Design the sequence.
DNA sequence: AATGAATGAGCGTTCATTCAT
DNA sequence: AATGAATGAACGCTCATTCAT
């Protein structure tokens, strides 16, 4: 347990130097996750069994349970993975935005980019008509939603964005982002720019029109 | 589903009342659907088995298969049920709308009303953090989406609504409707009016701002 | 559920007439019990698996669970079976006994007879040196013990038996019966009469000598 | 088990103290046995797995197999342990006995004392109604039985005890000892003395009455 | 049409054991 | 000698589905 001061290792102490064991462990975990990703995309969440996942791996069945204790847990890990992958990008572009239109535009763009690049993952969440879609709001995913909402609130406080219900606003952005992604993926070629422009303009105009917004409201027909 | 006037039954044919046999059939089917609804809400889609459903019924296991051939099929029937329940109302309010703000407002209001009245059903679709949500776009559900899109296109043609991408627009409305519903249900008391106003104003303002719209576009902050 | 007064059956109402279904059910249950008996005797309780039992049967694996829910439950049923088989005999001989020596002698004799006739069953309870013996005091078995103790108490009340601690006395009889059975079975030929005489004489003499025994009655003849 | 005087170790050989390595070995073995004892008492023999045992230890799973090759073997070791613990005491009191009543009384007393002091162990062998009791007559246990039988034969030869079937007699003593222990443990407070007096008197009187017993010696005082 | 026991594939999981470190 | 992850056979069990009644 204790760390000997002098290490009888041939590697630079204190840096990476994962033992062979740790290496295999990492590899195994990655193998399971990657197999799971494929299988989920192919068979859907409910159609997938733990055995399907390990079969895609060259590990023994029991090995699965050294890493995850159920299909749900792998699924969650996969979702967390995605969330952890987009969130830094989203946070960055929002931090860099100096005006609200940019804030929105870059948020949507990053999200649509991510969706376009990771279609296999979304094959799971968005499937053919009549088939079952599945969504899991893991803690990491929820955290991403909350970051968005917090950033929106901040922008409102700073007078950059009109002061509207931030909870509903974040929800709307998320709803639009997911649903528009879906349609975007169905078109050929995939037009991230178009989707971005649509979503941004819709939201930007809409927000301006919201009751709480001080600006001339409720335009149209 | 429809009741033929002349019945090929061996019982008194001269009454308009459904034969006892058909009556039982309808009852059984309804019993299965209602049991399924409860079980799905309680156990989630994946957690539910055909056995769980029939157990809530006083039918024998084999009887299930006279009505549905799998859990997926009952689930689909349930979804269709809901879709068939809201769609007439949605179509009606949209047909009655003489201006676009009313069109949008009444669409959202009807949907949020429906959600508020049918929370058990949405307990299935929207579950606690970390748990799995499930959604199935059955033909009837998709038809509902298409009706919305068609109505939007019609409104655009008639010059009532700005001419924007109707596919993305319908998608956005749907995304907003679902995601805002979710938040609406989490608040106490449930405020259908507030949700309706938010969604309507957001969309109405947004549409006016969309590039294709002929009106002064895209401004803000 | 209700019993129609006139039955459209071709069999004498009110008597046996088990339907074919009930017949198979009874057969299946019996088949499982009998297979279990053999397997337990061969592999010991812990060595036996549910699958071993069904394998000895020509039933499908799932069928087992229509009848029992675990190996423990079959085992218990088997034990109950035995207990229910000996107890009537034991009760009868004790009821018929007019003196205490007869009471004891016939109790032991019946038990040893039973053991001698049912060696396969005892193969489970009494196994080779070094192997594990298993005993399960199911409710039915315990009831048998209690009947013995009650009868002993009755005999004491009636002045037929000396008044000693009936709990310890019943325990002693049971201990002797089991342990002596074991030795009896190891001898060739099996001498039920010898075992009976030994146990009876030992107990009869012993009881007479017990401190509480006030009476001089019941001398060994 | 034995300590060779000359040790093939690379450590200071000139001390009588066990080498550190041997010390650890002994400790590990003891740790496993003690963990096993607890787990068996808690989970029952069948319910216990090797993993359960090592988990209670701070050893690695593989280490178990340096000491025992199966759960059965640990169980056997535990049983041997007990047997080796009582037998010297039993042998001693019997050797010291100058008359047969004392021989019996001290045998029972020692056994009941042992049981009373080691209830955890008997929790395994004797469990609640309906649950499974397990008993293993390991070689060491059997040796204890044989010692009893030999001592009985010796006493008969020496004219101290009546000449009766020594095999059945030993069996009876063992049966009584086990079964009466059981009842004794259920009473509050635990009355070793009472159990001893009961068993001794019963057996002593009984033996005197046995047909083979020619002698009038050895009456209960 | 309804029943409900039988079926058997196949699932999740555990576990004793091995063996590279 | 100790470690602990990997192994894979095999277990208990469930389940959708069938089919004789």
Sequence:
């Amino acid at each position: 347990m204790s760390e000997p001061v002098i290490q009888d290792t041939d590697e630079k102490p204190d840096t990476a130097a994962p033992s062979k064991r740790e290496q295999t462990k990492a590899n195994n975990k990655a193998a399971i996750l990657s197999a799971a990703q494929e299988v989920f995309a192919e068979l859907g969440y409910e159609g997938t069994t733990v055995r399907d996942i390990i079969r895609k791996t060259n590990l023994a069945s029991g090995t699965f349970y050294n890493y995850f204790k159920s299909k749900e847990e792998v699924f969650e890990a996969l979702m967390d993975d995605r969330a952890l992958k987009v969130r830094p990008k989203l946070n960055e572009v929002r931090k860099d935005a100096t005006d609200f239109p940019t804030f929105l535009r870059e948020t949507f763009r990053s999200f649509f980019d991510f969706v376009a690049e990771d279609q296999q993952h979304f094959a799971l969440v968005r499937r053919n008509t009549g088939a079952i879609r599945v969504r899991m709001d893991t803690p990491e995913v929820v955290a991403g939603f909350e970051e968005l909402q917090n950033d929106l609130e901040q922008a409102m406080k700073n007078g950059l964005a009109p002061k509207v219900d931030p909870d509903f606003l974040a929800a709307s952005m998320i709803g639009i982002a997911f649903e528009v992604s879906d349609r975007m993926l169905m078109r050929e070629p995939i037009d991230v720019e178009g989707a971005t422009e649509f979503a941004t303009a819709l939201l930007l105009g809409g927000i301006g029109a919201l009751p709480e917004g001080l600006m001339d409201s409720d335009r149209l027909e």
